Amino acid sequence: MSVAVDVVGGKWKLHLMWVLSEGPQRFGRIRRMLDGVSEKVLAENLRQLEAHGVVHREIYPEIPPRVEYSLTLLGEELALALRPLEAWGDRHKHQLLGHPTTPAPATLVDQVR
In this prediction, what percent of the chain has a pLDDT beyond 70? Predict the structure, then answer.
């Protein structure tokens, strides 16, 4: 678990995985899709995901140069692994966001203990 969290940890990386799972994207479009992220933070997070082998950066030799970011095969596998987490969040968002001070009911983990 800690290896996966190291790759996608932080405020923006999971969001980047979601955006890139839709297909190759240019930097400007990614920035528009992720409201609130600065250019510096976005570039840094993309570089980190690229360093982990999850994101591929393609530079097209055009004038002006065009750069696209996409998921690698490793990134696509990670995106698949993250889908159940997204589904869980969708199922429970009203409970989690609607009543943040209400204690959560017993969980599956508590029941197993």
Answer: 87
